[in-house]
Helicase C-terminal domain-containing protein (marine sediment metagenome), 162 residues
Amino acid sequence: MALITKLKQICNIDPASKESCKLEYLLEKLEEISEQDDKALVFSQYPEKTLKFLEPDLKQFNTLVYHGSLSDSQRDKVVKRFQEEEHSRVLLMSVKAGGLGLTLTRANFVFHFDLWWNPSVATQAEDRTHRIGQKKTVFVTSLFTVGTIEERIQNLLKRKRE
């Protein structure tokens, strides 16, 4: 399982070059979203590796971060800021910390930067935006690298959902 985790992390960020084709795509989409005055949630299962890597490149969107290392009061402040502040366009979230019990209706775009084996985990994360008070159509995008273990996971998830 450790090897699979490492392979999945390499799909997110090339450890040799520190580059990420997923990040390039995400930046392009977030610029469009920001221009439309919309907001986005970006989920990853790797807060220490992926969220920390993404945060500096997403500063232009006044990005906030929500993960399990935050205290309850810090988490509450992050959610309040994201919901109330117009200029905070992106919320980076750990799937485990942000998967249940939150209402984030200001976001109408959801990006899964990496994939869980269980499709219900992704669905629960997406449900943060599908709440009473959501006024817009919600768009969900799962990022995966073609020809890698991620493509296999994506195909497995598709079969599980059918």
